[in-house]
Specification:
This protein is an alpha/beta fold. The chain starts with a strand and ends with a helix.
Length: about 180
């Protein structure tokens, strides 16, 4: 049975999730890829306010295609997450509690997740058109000049994800592989 999550996602809620949990996210999530992450971190390092509040925020690593008429967003499949690894520890320390993407994360990101209580969700790559149907509203809130990589505020309903790495550092990419090898 999937775990229903309503954003914002508190640190306490994030700490209750376990690697392997299937989840359905509803509420507000933000989009950002590496160019936007770089700008966010530069602002934070200069002590300037960020264009979005990181407290209890869930960030989806995506660069969606343009929306067709009558749709909130175009295809919105996940981006490879390691490209955000240089920036994620700082944003986690500023309050980010969830990240959605695909692929492995580096040890610095996992250490920040464990220290602060954050989770990494996996979304299924190649299903961008299906995932976009969970987006009910989308608006650019920062960095419009980045085009597809602008920061968007998405209102989502039952957005399907899996907890890949939990706040304890349990990693489905490792435990799942091990379980498979042991079953052979």
């Amino acid at each position: 049975m999937p775990v229903s999550i309503k954003t914002p996602l508190s640190r306490e809620q994030a700490r209750q999730l376990k690697a392997g949990d299937s989840c359905l996210i509803s509420g507000v999530i933000y989009t950002a890829r590496d160019a936007a992450h770089k700008r966010l971190c530069e602002l934070a390092e200069q002590g300037k306010p960020l264009p979005v509040d990181m407290k209890d925020a869930v960030i989806y690593y995506v660069g969606p295609t343009p929306a067709r008429p009558g749709e909130a967003i175009g295809s919105a499949g996940p981006t490879t997450s390691y490209r955000m690894d240089a920036y994620s520890p700082l944003l986690i320390s500023l309050g980010e509690t969830g990240m959605i993407g695909k692929g492995k994360r580096g040890p610095e990101v996992i250490a920040a997740m464990k220290e602060h209580g954050a989770v990494y969700f996996g979304a299924i790559g190649g299903c961008g058109a299906l995932l976009s149907q969970c987006v009910k509203k989308a608006e650019i809130v920062a960095y419009e000049d980045l085009g597809a990589e602008a920061i968007r505020r998405l209102e989502v309903e039952d957005f399907p994800v899996i907890v890949v790495i939990d706040s304890q550092g349990n990693n489905l990419y490792e435990t799942g592989r091990q379980a498979y090898l042991e079953s052979r």
